[in-house]
Amino acid sequence: MVLSSTDTNPPIEYVPNFLTPSQALELHNHCETLAWRQNTIKIFGKTMPVPRLECMYGDEGCDYLYSKSVLLQPIAWTPELQQLRLHIESSTGYRFHIVLCNRYRDGRDSNGWHADNEKSMGESPAIASITLGQKRKFQMRQGKKGKPVDIWLKHGSLLVMHPGCQESWVHQLPKTTRPVEERINLTFRPHINGKICNEETDLK
Ligand SMILES: O=C(O)CCC(=O)C(=O)O
Ligand SMILES: [Fe+2]
Asked: The Fe2OG dioxygenase domain covers which part of the protein (predicted)?
């Protein structure tokens, strides 16, 4: 499977059953053991906890700063995350150098409207996002005034935001007052300092 269509609006692709149930279960168990951290973010000079837990794995030298205040430094790939990276790369045809992991403990945890347009990802990045655990509503909107499009991201699914998406669309994972279980999200991203990997040996 190579996902390459970018002519949809929004320019995304959603694959609900990307992982088999046993792959999703194994990966979910693995992700619970990752090095989760409560980071803080500075907004209008005020320091606040990020409303979710985070950690980042990836190639050496691929530091990632977002919202001009949260600096994530990559931990070396675990074998499980490396295997998933190769699976996503061969399915999408895109290259990824880091995976930013989010853990939404309950409905109070969230991720506000934003575009992932940090320069460290290079021009027009593609982003691939895996969901494990609780199904949550993900929203996308074109610019500030667009009507939000809702996408329910389910356990074991893959969402690909194609190149061009971050330039004109923003997205969020809103809070919910419904009682919900925990959700883990893995977003694979390129990085300008990423290793140039060798197709012959790395994609086998
Ligand atoms: O949790 C999600 O599905 C979205 C995460 C996200 O947008 C991000 O980490 O930039
Ligand atoms: Fe994002």
From this structure: 95-192
Quick one: pLDDT at residue 199?
Answer: 47
Distance of CA 133 to the CA centre of its chain: 15
Q: Please confirm whether the linkage preceding 163 is cis (ω < 30° from 0).
A: no
* Confidence band for 200, pLDDT divided at 50, 70 and 90: very low
Ligand 1 pocket test, pick from 140, 149, 171, 186 with the greatest ligand atom count within 8 Å of Cβ, gives 171
The two structure tokens encoding residue 167: 């330039």
CA dist list (Å): 38 to 49, 103, 193 = 7, 10, 26
In the chain the domains, ranked by start, together with CATH numbers, are 12-193 (2.60.120.590)
What is the Å distance from ligand 2's center to 152 Cα?
A: 15
User: Average pLDDT over the chain, rounded to whole?
Assistant: 93
